[in-house]
Amino acid sequence: MTGNLERELRTLDAWAQSYPRDTFAISLPAGLALSSTGQHERAIAHAEKTIAMDPDSAPAYSNLARNLLSANRPDDALLDISRATERKVEAEGVPLIAYLVAFLKGDQEALARARTAAGKRLELEDFIPHLEALALAREGRLQDARRASVVPVEIAQRAGRGERAGLFEAARAVWEAFYGNAASARQSAGQAIARGRGRDVDYAAAFALALSGDLQRSRSLAEHLAREYPEDTSVQFMYLPALRALFSLDDGNPAAAIEAVQIASRHDLALGRIGFVARYGGLYPIYVRGLAFLALRQPAQAAGEFQRIVEHPHITLVDPMSALARLQLARALVLSGDRVKA
User: Which residue in 29, 128, 149, 330 is a FRET match for 165, CA 20 to 30 A apart?
Assistant: First the structure.
């Protein structure tokens, strides 16, 4: 509830030491606590230990596949999925990971199969359309992305899941802001907040508003996050640093922006809570740091930041930000004098 993932891990360690045969205590760290903070090898170890103790533990197979993919081991993730299938274990996240692996590999036949399999799962009824809208936006097909994004929002809304609908709506706000469509970004951000408030919805809306120039509303959301979630790992070490850096960039102070986002460096390659639950928003502090270096006319440093994003497609996957990172990398290379590589 507090979002303090370091304290959660300490509690789980004590639990596992006291009750070493309790697979729940062994399995739980491989979920949000380790996965969202980029500690994938530790998460893999926990998931594998859980499966060794209980070969029919559905959450363990989901956690293992998710973290193998995030550790850039997609083939191993598929092997894990095969093991779960062979044992007839109905692991909730497995069809989703199969879909993401196929997307990463660019295997259209596997992607179609994974889409069909995932479509049979009620818990993914809205999530696969959400991913497909993100992927369309990543390709720059914004008209198609806007039409596709209506579907997951409506499904979540009908199910009475306002915050989830808000999270899907906020995704549209973020990609519109990345593409420079300020009016559309502000409109979608406002709709997202109206559909359902939550730490991740507020962050995504605030990020979109900051990028699109509505600093007043973005600052208000950031203040709310700081006040309501003082212990939350994602909020304090990823969300707020990225937002404060954007505020400093708007103030014309890129040096302050780099300083603001420095605290996020320990979690640079983490999905964050929003990336864990909605598959966008990961690595945004790196992107903002790159923007700050561009503003400082330090293109080599900026290129280094954007290159880090490009080198981790297994983390960004469908996120439109990964396409924009390539554009910013090209701009940094032009400023560096390397027009051919740009």
Answer: 29
